[in-house]
Amino acid sequence: MMTTKKELRLQKKILRKQFTEDQIDEMSLVIANKVLSLPIWEKTYFHVFLPIIEHKEVNTEFILHLLAGKDKEIVVSKSDFETHKMTHFLLTDNTRIKKNEYNIPEPVDGLEVPSSKIDVVFVPLLAFDTSGNRVGYGKGFYDKFLSECKPETIKIGLSFFEADIEITDVFEGDIKLDYCVTPEIVYKF
């Protein structure tokens, strides 16, 4: 089915609201296990989003455990809602995480990591299509961030839902995913 970003955003938000906390944890664990099959484990710097619980996003805690277990450098971000830019910090045992006014868990401070250093990015999204186009919340944070990364940075979407056939209002500046992992399928674009 062909749909616009706005329609998909609305539709997926409604569908996500119906999930219980247990369902989210169950699906998130399945997604994390599927992530293990991706050809990314020789990489070093992994950027992970910390989920907005209120938006019922994929719980990335399981992925964080995988990365820590494999001694990877984990990077988390802080968002600036005036510039729509993200600043990235190394996640360490000493990193203090605090929710901002939008309920996004963020590092208070820490060792800054430039976007150009990041090898793999786990991308939050509401929907995606069979070509690897994604729909986020529409603020453009990840488009800006991904455009600052190296061209070979691996971009992995995480979704509770399967791909939609086509997002009709894709812009040239939109950055596509390389993979999207759902509880059912690992999509490769």
UniProtKB/TrEMBL annotation:
Pfam families: 5-FTHF_cyc-lig (PF01812)
Enzyme class, broadest EC rank: ligase
EC number(s) recorded for this UniProt protein: 6.3.3.2
Biological process according to GO: folic acid-containing compound biosynthetic process; tetrahydrofolate interconversion
GO molecular function, one term: ATP binding
Record field: catalytic activity: (6S)-5-formyl-5,6,7,8-tetrahydrofolate + ATP = (6R)-5,10-methenyltetrahydrofolate + ADP + phosphate
Binding site for substrate: L50, E57
Keywords assigned by UniProt, alphabetized: ATP-binding, Ligase, Magnesium, Metal-binding, Nucleotide-binding
Cofactor: Mg(2+)
Residue numbers binding ATP: K5, K6, E7, L8, R9, R134, V135, G136, Y137, G138, K139, G140, F141, Y142
Keyword flag Magnesium: yes
Family listed: Belongs to the 5-formyltetrahydrofolate cyclo-ligase family.
UniProt protein name: 5-formyltetrahydrofolate cyclo-ligase
